[in-house]
Amino acid sequence: METMNGQLNRKLRMALVGGGQGSFIGRVHSIAACLDNRAELVAGALSSNPEKAKASAPAYDIKPDRAYGSIEELVEKELALPEDQRIDFISIATPNFTHFSIAKTAVEAGFNVICDKPMTFDLAQAEELKSLVEKSGVVFAVSHNYTGYPLVRMAREMILNGEFGEIQAVRSNYIQGWLRSRLEEEDQKQAAWRTDPAKSGAAGAFGDIATHAYNLGRYMTGLLPAEISCNLKIFAPGRQLDDYGHAVIRFQNGAMGTVTASQISHGRENDLFIEVDGTKGALAWRQEEPNQMIVRRNGQPHSIYTRDPNAPFMNESGAAACRLPAGHPEAFFEAFANIYRSAFDAMINRISGQPFEPKNTIYPNVYDGVEGMFFIQQSVASSQENGAWLPFQCESARS
Amino acid sequence: METMNGQLNRKLRMALVGGGQGSFIGRVHSIAACLDNRAELVAGALSSNPEKAKASAPAYDIKPDRAYGSIEELVEKELALPEDQRIDFISIATPNFTHFSIAKTAVEAGFNVICDKPMTFDLAQAEELKSLVEKSGVVFAVSHNYTGYPLVRMAREMILNGEFGEIQAVRSNYIQGWLRSRLEEEDQKQAAWRTDPAKSGAAGAFGDIATHAYNLGRYMTGLLPAEISCNLKIFAPGRQLDDYGHAVIRFQNGAMGTVTASQISHGRENDLFIEVDGTKGALAWRQEEPNQMIVRRNGQPHSIYTRDPNAPFMNESGAAACRLPAGHPEAFFEAFANIYRSAFDAMINRISGQPFEPKNTIYPNVYDGVEGMFFIQQSVASSQENGAWLPFQCESARS
Amino acid sequence: METMNGQLNRKLRMALVGGGQGSFIGRVHSIAACLDNRAELVAGALSSNPEKAKASAPAYDIKPDRAYGSIEELVEKELALPEDQRIDFISIATPNFTHFSIAKTAVEAGFNVICDKPMTFDLAQAEELKSLVEKSGVVFAVSHNYTGYPLVRMAREMILNGEFGEIQAVRSNYIQGWLRSRLEEEDQKQAAWRTDPAKSGAAGAFGDIATHAYNLGRYMTGLLPAEISCNLKIFAPGRQLDDYGHAVIRFQNGAMGTVTASQISHGRENDLFIEVDGTKGALAWRQEEPNQMIVRRNGQPHSIYTRDPNAPFMNESGAAACRLPAGHPEAFFEAFANIYRSAFDAMINRISGQPFEPKNTIYPNVYDGVEGMFFIQQSVASSQENGAWLPFQCESARS
Amino acid sequence: METMNGQLNRKLRMALVGGGQGSFIGRVHSIAACLDNRAELVAGALSSNPEKAKASAPAYDIKPDRAYGSIEELVEKELALPEDQRIDFISIATPNFTHFSIAKTAVEAGFNVICDKPMTFDLAQAEELKSLVEKSGVVFAVSHNYTGYPLVRMAREMILNGEFGEIQAVRSNYIQGWLRSRLEEEDQKQAAWRTDPAKSGAAGAFGDIATHAYNLGRYMTGLLPAEISCNLKIFAPGRQLDDYGHAVIRFQNGAMGTVTASQISHGRENDLFIEVDGTKGALAWRQEEPNQMIVRRNGQPHSIYTRDPNAPFMNESGAAACRLPAGHPEAFFEAFANIYRSAFDAMINRISGQPFEPKNTIYPNVYDGVEGMFFIQQSVASSQENGAWLPFQCESARS
């Protein structure tokens, strides 16, 4: 297990933007970043309300003089610090509509970034951000955190190695129930911004969770999309954004993909599950039971691959993402931490003046962020055109 | 548990068409029909090859003089028998392309019929058959056997009673793997006719299994369809009919349905599963584990309803479909037998000169058969038009 | 699939003793016996109350002249019939305390017998019955029906073939909840006799269900027992027989077995499950999900063996016990029917004057019945002696 | 979610004893202790080999001057530090045989302690340690980490509140397979000391894992034991300590408990599972799927309680142990961290001069440690006396 940062010989210093009271994801970022003892949270702009920003700092053990009132202040004051105190990276855990300007400010100042998904408010912002990242050369990760699960990474390596043959079908689903009723009317902060087109963007469920489901299939299989047809629904009366939807995707190799997202399915918690069919085998994985994956091949007993870093069947990507032996379950925090762990490796390379792969990274990056925004844009557009097939070749996509 | 046929005071007499050597479904029909000791198999036209028809009879304990060489011979000779020996009903267990002429002959002769699905080769035949059934007044059941599972019937009653509120989403899937390779090239009789457009009809997987998945959702929810968009695929090189496909259905009440069918998913056996989302609750059921159904409601623990005929939570339809107490699993044969059981009740009414409901029956009937053929026709047509939305209001549909 | 009885060329004729109104198991016997169309129920002594015996006959489609008032009448009148009408075997589905005299009468008259378990009221009766069976040469099966599941038979063949190495631990459990409250006080016939020492014998839960659990382990592994220590409990106040209990068994090869039985575990239905540990592998099987078995080997993914008669991994015993392809679940009735199927093969041999194996049969037999009674006797005795180790080498046991 | 330590207004300072290269549990302690950002690891005696102790420090980010070579050095030098730098607590993550002297040194110096289980090498040490803790007044927790799972704590509160009625049966199992072969011969450090009586103590599997299983039942139910009967086995040829065993426990209220532990069950990873039967309900929980618990009550659908801190059904103990909303799985690290979290609350009270409950704590404590050693001692003694019933009333036990 890694702990320190090799030749760097110190912890990486983190700033958190967002994460003030009422935030769920800010805490996740700080725990995930620090889990391996490779980083410490030293600064923050925890709220767009400067007073609340200050007040939230003690809960993160952030010193008062580094509890800033805005990203601008954060960047300015951190740049003014000696290099050996200055932060190394900024984690963005704010509502969607603010991601772009925060990320832009951070990237232009040369800070590495871990940004929540969807990466921006719309595709144009995403494309611009991609250019900025390319220009600045920072490490930029996007928190498609479900790609951090060891068995997801094992599956990806197996698929890319051809162990399942040609991939022909991908069924990716993300089913929740928490927005069954109009929580956004009940002063529930999470629900409020996610259902508000001014803050969430063009899509509701499709922006919030279908992007994860789509990304998971893309990440696992490497299949490149060609066309998309989508139908979105609003089932909760009066809501402004989709709370249910379904897309069909034609991949360039002829495979068929389906993405289903729901926020109105009673009792479903965070049920991201995926099935992949290849000519040589098929797999199924479910986020709520992340320590096992089912692999099936005709004529053989079904195989349950457990997250076992010491097993002969575990491949390198999978093993590298484990922290505990088999039977000692790992879960959400550890997967999230694996995004950080992989991004940290790239950051250390950058800090040390060594090259690092920018595009086909083990962690989701700015190109995946662009593709996610493209997915949202084309899904919404197709739905508005009665489910018409729209082109969906994303130039920026990872291979 | 029923055993005898009430006022009729005798077993019903059955003839089987199809079911010769190599047939899987013929044996299922005979076991299912006789399971409750309410019917006996006394006659058959077990093969279209007269010699094979004779040769197959002993395995069913059919006497040589009632082992006929064709449906025509069967009808002619049975009609010539005294009424107290003559068969009461004919079960049709032949490949799709022969259903219509057999069923027509049987119905016109006044025999009750249990017919395999899909009911006919095409929609025109189905419509004609419906008219013939209406004219003759026979009992006509279609073997959408999965509707016979006790928990499916319980779910239907719960939904129709409003226990799940307004239904908004239905996700119905039927995933198999047995046609992953081109078994039809290897002298496998089942595979051969099912992949042959001249015998199976316009669709492959969509005719063979998506019809079941669609029917299951319709049966459970009672939702009426409005439009359908479908995309079919042939993944096994050289195959003539779809082995994978996906349809989106808009129901008249605004609900969204999806139907996915696959015959190329490694290791998947007969995995019909359905999820239904309503405003007051959601359910999930899986054919391969038929003795339990999951019901979820926000804010409550998830509920596993087991097939327990004595439990307070079990409703009338569910209990009536059980033969064993909880924990003593029931399965495929018993569900299939429940189609017979329900059809027998109608037959006894008919034989006794009493009225019986022709359309909204507990068992799948000729109207469901017509709707199934309409589903296949519009799915194929939509797929040929690149997934265009096509009208899908079926006039004959049960409510 | 078998249907007719080979060279015998006719159905076997069955008489049922017990099974009158309120009986659950009588109906199971008749359905199981007739499932494959190899037998027909033609006679019965359905109740010890002659009037009720007559009244129950129509529900089984037994003709009035063969609805007898007692086993004595049944035997006498059947023996008086011409051989080509006379019954071939008698199924005994009555409370425990009556098994012996019924079976004795049947066996001495030369009829084959299928007898419910536990086989007799006490061990002395069991030993005597064994001698009678040996003398008469009839086929005698005991309805340890859970041994009829295809995957149980597959497991047995795998274990006996050494695929799991030396067996070192067997954990067998049978957990129910239906006697949580004192149903026997509420005019529930099943509960009444099972909790009455005069009718059930020396044990309650241990006689009713622990015998199944013990038998399942013995059947699967072939391990021979050496010693037993047992502790029984009565948790429902006022009950006379154990409703919970636990035994530890030392097998002759040094393996350790545990048997746990409960009838007071809320919500547990019929949860017979077993785990077997060998030096080369381990397996787990659960009766409520009988179509799958989990096989584990260190360093390999866990394997789910499904009941797939066509799979390369399915062995001969397993395949022979299947009636349906994979994914079309089989369950309780079919397993029960497999006891009949195997016993029928022996009966046909006997009727045809051919030899048949009496002891190490694929179906549970009179020797297993004796061992079951020995298990009950020693369990109760050990419990009365505060869990002392008692000898448990059963001379009559199958190898 | 807690982060800082209330009125204390600083992180607690931790020292780790053990955890050098090859250690699994040392890393778990450091991650668990720091997960909530309430503590920081500042000192260590990471190995009994002083050089290795120094060499292991960087991996934990421990400064060289606080990387000590022994517990004695650690205590001496830390006591010499100013109070505002000195450690607050010592975590002991060494093999069993060293726990006592380390803990004694720590406790006598007035440091709070988190000690691995089993707490000591034998019962006499445990009793002495208990006295020392009582005298010194330190906070002393024992890492029966499985009690930290939110659903375990929810279950405990439900049971102690009487929601399951009187508890009558507890079946607790801990099944592993990793010691199937003699890993201890292959230079596997974990296996080596655990199978060595000089280092592990009187028991192998029973000391290592059965103690957890026993403790889990005790913690959940609060039942007090009266007598124990145990049978231990060594299945791996040449091994010196039990690798399989089984105990039966009579509780003072008349309930029956069983504890089964195995380290030789192929493919079983870390399968701790428990079933509890009460007069009003029953529950089942499995460590490998810790985010759900099954609750059953006769006549009701089975209930799956998920770890949902916001659900109406979640009680206070359960909710307080959660860090993430439902569907975002939590696992091993978080449960372990909950032991720390609860102990930290007590430490803060102690540091602040406020009283704290010493015995009936939410975290496992020195009294549980004593009971665990008593469990091991009586299990081994009973097994040596052929499974005789031995008294098992532990005077020190929590109520």
**CATH fold naming of the largest domain in chain A:** Dihydrodipicolinate Reductase, domain 2
Query: Mind summarizing the main beta sheet of chain A?
Result: 9 strands, mixed
Query: What is the CATH top level name of the largest domain in chain A?
Result: Alpha Beta
User: How many beta-strand elements of chain A?
Assistant: 14
**Helicity of chain A, in percent?**
25-40%
Poorly predicted residue ranges of chain A? none
Give the strand line-up of the largest sheet of chain A.
13-12-11-10-6-9-8-7-14
Q: H/E series of chain A, N to C?
A: EHEHHEHEHEHEHHHEEEEEEEHHHE
Q: Largest interface here, residues on each chain?
A: A-D, 43 and 43 residues
The fourth-level CATH homologous superfamily of the largest domain in chain A is: Dihydrodipicolinate Reductase, domain 2
What is the arithmetic mean of pLDDT of chain A? 96
* Oligomer type: homotetramer
